[in-house]
Amino acid sequence: MLLETCTTIDIYEKNIVLPKHRWPASFKPEFTFTIEDTSVPYQVYLVVRHNEKYNYNNLWVNIYSQMPGDSARKNVYELPLATNEKGWLATGMDDIYEHRIPLTSPLDNLIFKKQGNYKFIVEQIMREDPLENVLSVGLRVEKKQ
Q1: How many Å from the N-terminal Cα to the C-terminal Cα in the chain?
Q2: Distance CA 111, CA 38 (A)
Q3: Contact between residue 53 and residue 131 where contact means Cβ atoms under 8 Å apart
Q4: Which of 77, 73, 53, 74 is nearest to 126 (CA)?
Q5: Backbone Cα Rg of the chain
Q6: CA triplet 144, 13, 49: central angle to 5 degrees?
Q7: Beta strands at 30-35 and 116-124: parallel, antiparallel or unpaired
Q8: How far apart are CA 98 and CA 131, in angstroms?
Q9: Around 37, how many Cα atoms within 13 Å sit in the side-chain half-sphere?
């Protein structure tokens, strides 16, 4: 008998569908989740779904994060979506691709220091506006064990 152990516990995932598969820079999806356990590390992922017509190998975003009692902080990310050698760096079904991109290194231990509500806002900052062929944007938070 083979026993498998889980190394993460999902605590939050929300995906926001983009109307007409277009992401205008003015549309900034917001995600709010509650952290109760501050003693364990977490992993936060940006989840992006697009179709095969997406024109770029990457995605540039600003991610604003706000901890309980603090003001929002902005981080700029260039998120790789494809390489010339491997193609899409995603799971795919038919012509739909889903990327689950860690916002911290898997080796980092992200510790939420305060209990309460955390808010993340995602803003696309690509040259193309609206950004075509993006189906949804989401945020996923996992508790590492």
Answers
A1: 23
A2: 7
A3: no
A4: 77
A5: 16
A6: 115
A7: antiparallel
A8: 16
A9: 12
What DSSP string runs through 52-73? TT---SEEEEEEEEE-TTS--E
Query: Could you give the CA distance from residue 65 to residue 135 in angstroms, rounded to a whole number?
Result: 23
Contact in structure between 50 and 60 (CB atoms under 8 Å): no
Structure tokens at 108: 């980092």
Are 80 and 58 contacting, i.e. CB atoms less than 8 angstroms apart? yes
Q: How many whole angstroms from its chain centre is CA 133?
A: 17
pLDDT, tens digit only, all 145 positions of the chain? 444 445 557 799 999 999 999 999 999 999 999 999 999 999 999 999 999 999 999 999 999 999 999 999 999 999 999 999 999 999 878 899 999 999 876 656 678 999 999 999 999 999 999 999 999 999 999 998 7
Domains, in order of start, for the chain: 12-144 (2.60.120)
